Amino acid sequence: MDSYFQDAVFMGEPAKLSLLPSSFDVQFSDRQLQIPTANIIAIHVTHRARAEVSESDSRIHAALFAAGNYPKDSVEQNDNQGEMFRLKSFQMEYTGQHLLPCPPLLLPHLPEHLRLPPKNGQANIHVVISTFSGTQKAEGFYELALKPLLDQLKVSPYAVHRTESADSISQLTRDIILPRVNQGIKQLIILLSGDGGMVDVVNTLFSEQMTTANAAIPIVGLIPMGTGNALYNSSCRPRPNKGLPATTTQTSGQEPDGTSEDQTRGLRNLLLGMPKPLPTFHVTFSPKSTSISYPASSTHPMHTPLSSTSPSGTSTLHGCVLTSWCLHASLISLSDAPAHRVHGSSRFSTAAKSLLCPPDNSPTHLYKGVVSTLHCDQSGQEIWEPLRERDGSIRREHMYILATLVSNLEEGFTVSPHSEPLDGKLRIVSIGAVGPEEVVRLLGLAYQGGRHVDDENGLVGYEEVEGLRIEFAEEDDDGAEDKSEMGRWRRVCVDGLIVECPRAGWVEVRRDRGRSVVELIPISPAECYPYAFASDTAPVATSPDKVPVTTLSLLLRTTHPDYIKTVSLLSTLYPFSHPP
Ligand SMILES: Nc1ncnc2c1ncn2[C@@H]1O[C@H](COP(=O)(O)OP(=O)(O)OP(=O)(O)O)[C@@H](O)[C@H]1O
User: Fold this and answer.
1) By alpha-carbon position, which residue is closest to atom 18 of ligand 1?
2) DAGKc domain location, by residue (predicted)?
């Protein structure tokens, strides 16, 4: 294989460096170190030498940050849930005229959003740790990976906020972020959470007054700490099934070698990505709709009336991921119930089982109502059209209804394969009255890169729409043992929030067309051009009076075979110091 080599000193020891599509290689005289490219956060130029550096002394100094996840008590575990992450730096120094040839990962200087100065003594970079998200790993990730990275990069002062209740992120947004937004002060929120944290930020900014002209929309850098992380998996990392261009360093016909992966959990995007407006939608609920939650102390759901500012009594929520009804909404709602929460991460499968094959042997529920989609014709005229059966009749029973702005609901579940990161297009996925085996088969195809939308039997509807309306024809479920669950078939999910509509109620979803309230740092340029590391890439020339010092940041995973290989080498050279 043709490759580019750079003579170097790596942690004080002579070595040859090369950066290939799949790995960063350090070749010592007696051994080799290989680090997967997927774990590289960035190569950071921290210093450029003065003009007095002579041509004969054109050494380039570099430091390498490495971070990895490892089991809590140094015990190897095989599931992702048990892993923790950490960051580590390595110093490199290399000679010659060229900077390490990896422009997509090169960070010549900190991006503007990490250089936001404090104002009146208050930091404008906020780290928000959602302590309950996912399997509660956000605090550990902050301490072991994010904090050391921010500190070593010497980013502007930042404030750290930890959630203490389900309302913490909304409160922070309302009390601290929003007033500064209105003063025109640019802020960065580094959000360690699942989709729920983003929904709280978005809804608070929509619900509170954002004075128009002067408002400075906050930027969000998302660090995925939730269960599904739909927004992150759709907009902030490349999809595994998306093909990448071949390069001269690849043997013809070879699949890309894991290079499309980004295992840095949002840290690479934070350093190398450019903020983009986050598309959103709004959902209007008929009067008397209630949000559903399960308080820790109770096995019964709590119904809280949605607030309404409309004279007609309707309520509005905003979202950036999805609105669903039928199986998806029931699944999210049921899996949150205490009876299923006790199953931990397998609560979704136990909830799915009880919905598809009810324990009392009753048939799988088919959801009753009329669902219409909204399109605009060429003159901008709005046209509502109900979903129909093949014979042209209006469809009145449904199994799966989901409108989404994103491609993936979790890493491997591609619900909307045509959705591109932040493209702002609302797409609906619909399945009519099919049995449990069929719906399992169809949704299984979504795990194969979204093949369900091309189902040969034409059972899956998939189209881009402007909006969606559901008119419920579900009566109360008299069979429900718990009377507070009687309206369960009229529950809708908006980005994880569950709302129950009254009998004969309705829901309407529309794309937001106005100004975004948040900018998201999406997929980084490094992900778009991962093969620019290849040998045919022209190295970045550096004149002798511009000698950069760089930092290479890596995130390593203990369970990845490459990591185990790498760490066994690294640990003999530079032992990790485990936290107390
Ligand atoms: N200290 C806390 N006490 C109570 N609730 C909290 C606390 N911290 C966070 N929460 C709530 O926990 C929920 C976490 O949701 P989030 O979406 O971040 O994670 P998730 O549901 O595990 O992941 P995803 O939505 O990606 O599947 C949010 O509703 C948040 O408000």
Assistant:
1) 194
2) 120-231
What per-residue confidence (pLDDT) applies to 190? 98
CATH 3.40.50.10330 placement within the chain: 112-248+272-278+518-525
Q: Whose CA is nearest to atom 20 of ligand 1?
A: 226
**What would the two tokens of residue 31 be?**
């051994």
Q: How many CB atoms lie within 10 A of CB 239?
A: 21
pLDDT at 162: 98
Residue 131 Cβ inside 6 Å of ligand 1? The answer reads yes
Candidates 3.40.50.10330, 3.40.50.10470, 1.10.3720.10, 2.60.40.1120; CATH matching 112-248+272-278+518-525: 3.40.50.10330
Cβ-contact 286, 507 below 8 angstroms: yes
Residues 6+ apart with CB under 8 A from 378: none
What is the per-residue pLDDT across 551-567, written as a single tens digit (0 to 9) for each? 455 444 333 333 333 33
Q: Is 194 in the pocket of ligand 1 (CB under 6 A)?
A: yes
The complex scores an ipTM of 0.97
Domain boundaries 281-511, CATH class: mainly beta
Instruction: Name the percent of the chain lying above pLDDT 70.
Output: 75
Residue 311 CA to residue 532 CA, distance in Å, equals 57
Ligand 1 atom 14: residue of nearest CA: 133
Nearest CA owner, ligand 1 atom 23: 226
Q: Residue 568 has what pLDDT?
A: 34
Q: What is the mean pLDDT of residues 369-391?
A: 96
**Ligand 1 pocket check for 133: Cβ under 6 Å:** yes
Atom of ligand 1 nearest to the CA of 230: 26
E-strand spans in 144-275?
Answer: 158-162, 188-193, 219-224
